[in-house]
Design goal:
about 300 residues, mainly alpha, MetI-like fold, 2 domains, 12 helices, globular
């Protein structure tokens, strides 16, 4: 009887601890939302949504002052899209190789390297872009400035490539071996089994890996700041210098702007917009994964 009571007490403590951990994550998210909304209120009360979404120029720190978010949004989109075009196909192919073709010895050697690349500080990637990526690009495009969106997209693509490859490879390896053997038993080639069985079965995890990597590219700061610059302009030319939303937040948050000023509250307005973008991306990803999982 005492054993049962002791076991029930341990189970209750375990449930309480896990519930408390879940509450911490929920409370943290709620706190972030409350801070962003309340502080952004001071900005929108003076500027308004019309100027924030209607203007096409962003210069809140210099005269004449403009508060259009679109130059920062365009810069962020260019970095995220460019990085995705680089990291997603290469990461997927690398994951397929490691999961389906590489020997155990090769996999055990390559996988730790991917984990190591994923752990490199982002500022190191930024210096790599300035010291190596941009000079190489300038040999091909002589008129390319030192700071440009193309270099930023390339280095962020290199940065999120290990994440795509590692998470996708884990999803592919999670597919039961019996499914592969069943496809081969039906007369399918190895290539057909990979395309029609393995990738199809692991598509939920693959999509999640893609969205997670793109979300990191959207929120990347130091590498983009060093590679792409700090000049907000509404352009879709990757050869131009740009500024992303996260880079602007870092620039203003250094402490040069007086606390409580309108310029100070622009940080929270941009942060709220960035939070909304990532939230929509995660919601769409969850919906897409759910539909794919049920074959809808």
């Amino acid at each position: 009887m005492s054993y049962r009571r002791s076991r029930a007490r341990r189970e209750w403590i375990a449930r309480a601890l896990t519930f408390a951990c879940a509450l911490v994550s929920i409370a943290t998210t709620a706190g972030i939302v409350v801070v962003l909304v309340t502080e952004s209120y001071h900005f929108f009360a003076k500027v308004g949504f019309g100027r924030f979404f209607g203007e096409t120029t962003w210069s809140p720190l210099t005269e004449p002052r403009h508060y259009g978010i679109w130059p920062l949004a365009a810069g962020t989109a260019m970095i995220a899209i460019g990085a995705g075009l680089i990291a997603i196909p290469t990461g997927l192919l690398a994951a397929v190789f490691l999961s389906e073709y590489a020997s155990e010895r090769v996999r055990n050697a390559v996988k730790p390297v991917l984990e190591l690349l994923a752990g490199i500080p982002t500022i190191v990637y930024g210096f790599f872009a300035v010291a190596y990526v941009t000079p190489i690009l300038q040999r091909v495009i002589p008129s390319l400035p030192i700071y440009n969106a193309l270099s930023g997209a390339i280095v962020v693509g290199i940065m999120i490539f290990p994440m795509v490859a590692s998470l996708t490879e884990d999803s592919l390896r999670a597919v039961p071996k019996v499914q592969r053997e069943s496809g081969i038993a039906l007369g399918a080639t190895k290539n057909e089994v990979i395309r029609k069985v393995v990738l199809t079965s692991a598509r939920s995890g693959i999509i999640s890996a893609f969205i997670l990597a793109i979300s990191r590219a959207v929120g990347e700061t130091m590498a983009v700041t060093l590679a792409a610059g700090n000049r907000p302009q509404l352009t879709w030319n990757p050869a131009n210098e740009i500024q992303t939303m996260s880079a602007y937040i870092v620039m203003v948050a250094k402490g040069d702007v007086p606390h409580g000023s309108l310029e100070y509250y622009t940080v929270f307005a941009v942060g709220l917009a960035l939070f909304a973008i990532t939230l929509v991306m995660n919601l769409l990803a969850a919906r897409l994964v759910r539909r794919r999982s049920y074959g809808v």
